[in-house]
Amino acid sequence: MQKEKLRLIRKQKGYTQQQVADFIATDVSNYSRKESGDVRIVKDEWDKLARFLDVPIEDIYEEEEATVVVNNDHPVFNDRSAGVISNQNNYDNIPGDIIKNLQNYIALLKEENEKLKKELKDLPRGRK
To answer: Over the stretch 25-40, which tens digit does the pLDDT of each residue have?
Structure first.
């Protein structure tokens, strides 16, 4: 069952799925499946989503009827929605402003990386 309330508020707030995925520490394709209702959103994720979107959880919460279970042993799909106990660190208690600051820094580093790649590509062949 699609999470229409979540999707609507995310779009109203101007956030991309990538930004939300980064905040809840998953990849964008997994978050997309969560928002479309294919993958279950667990309680702590609902809490994080509400905090990120700055809304009461009641404004975004919808019942779960996930049809796909994520393979939690896969390094990319490391959410805990299937109830598997993992040995991963729990970052649930990191304040949102610190996470946003780190996300901004990561975006800045990605930008700088792209600039450097372009500079490297533009160098004369003999100088590489």
So the answer is: 999 999 999 998 888 8
Q: At what angle do helices 4-12 and 43-53 cross, to 10 degrees?
A: 30
Give the closest residue to 26 by CA, choosing from 7, 8, 39, 12: 39
What residues contact 18, with CB distance under 8 A and at least 6 apart? 28, 31
Burial 92-126 (b: 16+ CB within 10 A, else e): eeeeeeebeeeeeeeeeeeeeeeeeeeeeeeeeee
Q: Which residues contact 128 (CB under 8 A, 6 or more apart)?
A: 120
The model's confidence at residue 87, banded by pLDDT at 50, 70 and 90, is very low
**Of 1, 100, 91, the residue nearest 54 (C-alpha):** 100
